[in-house]
Specification:
heterodimer; A: mainly alpha; 10 helices; 2 strands; B: mainly alpha; two-stranded parallel sheet
Chain lengths: 268, 247
Amino acid sequence: MKLQNILSDIEQVDPEVYERLNSRRGLLNLGGKLAAAALPLAFGSSLKKAYAQTSTNNKIVDVLNFALTLEYLEAEFYNIGMGTPGLIPAEDRLIFAEVQMHENAHVAFLRKVLQSLGARPVEKPRFDFTAKGTFPTVFSSYTTYKLLAQAFEDTGVRAYKGQAGNLVGTGAVLEAALNIHSVEARHAAYIRRLNGNKGWVTFADSTGLPAAIYAGEDQQIQNERLGPINAHSGPVLFGIDTMAVTESFDEPLTKEQVLAIAMPFIVG
Amino acid sequence: MSKFFSNSAGDARKTELRLEPVGRRLFLRMAGAAAATTSLMVAGCSKDPITGDDMTARGGARIAAGVDLGSGDVGILNYAYALEQLEAAFYDMVVKMPYNGINADERQILKDIRDHEITHREFFKRALGSAAIGDLEVDFSAVNFKDRNSVLTTARAFEDLGVSAYNGAGKYLMTPDYLLLAGKIVSVEARHASVIRSLLAPKTGHYAGVDVVNGEGLEKSREPKDVLAIASPFVKTMITGPNLPNM
């Protein structure tokens, strides 16, 4: 993620970006190595003035703040879990240490990008990982803990996927979101295996978690408008069964669906 | 893996990529054998890094059978289709020819992945319709299918490559429906990559290691030209994408 990329990407959406900034020459002169460290602040304040009211920027900021909220939740979940003696068995700690590192890095990264866009990153909410008493043993039972970890990772994958369409044409911003999205999927797969599940999602099998997390994952028709791939022609399509067809595509969730899943864990 | 690609072959490939598709077709049709000979001189000046065969022995066939991925969103979808063809063919061989000492868990995983890759391949084929490229001819002579490590490290390379390819190509898709579809597939590829890596190095952070995820927690992206260069030793068919972005 380079700021210069963001600028050139915005230029594609808004050819007048430099005129809005009214300081193209000034910005480019800042582009040397010495000025690189100073660039984010200068860039951010220019962009903030130029884009305070525009829909493109608002849309990007909304997506990034939504993502940041989920990353806060995940980071805190793993920070507490890794910091709770006796919760995660020694043999699995390297797996969770990796997730913890990535989720904290995602928080830092999204905050940085938001600031460079001249936007204010949302504050970290207060979380209740028992979800108001639904999961009372979240930090005392490894079984509960790793099941909730699966819930957060699989939801995260679906959440990023659901926002991709809002980032079409934003270039580096979209790419960064995709670069996070696939990391969440890597996490999800390993944690699912720790829970005794396949690494991929079969039908809408919720594996004991709230059904909303996997709602719609059993979709069997992909893009009918383009030419469907589905199981309509029978139980078996080109030798692949319906179960595997549903595993082959991860489905998105809307922001509203994701917030409904996450809300019980957010105190305020 | 780019070490498979010698400098001279890389230079030749660039030359090939610069040819406009229509121009190249005309060129081949009009000049016949003479053109083939010229092409051989462009494409073949080293031994095939995988097989050791003299490239000139089949370079003409490669070019004559070459496919152009096309341009715009269709070009990107064909690019994905090419990669899915490669993956599906690989896992089909893995499932049909299980490596020595394979266990039930691994057998199930590899069959599942095979089924997913075939589904992806067939999806793109149908979605692209008449714009779809033809079937690619693959070359897995570098893989020892009897050897677990050879199979799983190749699988890892393909999955990581696939994820980085989708991650890098998403920004070029201008149709939201296509972007969403690519998103639905890339996370499944990432799940594959993670599981394969966990088989190679269980109970470690290798499933999302520093070789694929950077310090900011971002997974690697690759541009089409880099992906095609890495994939090329495994594909006999010459794949060109002169009208893909950033080639």
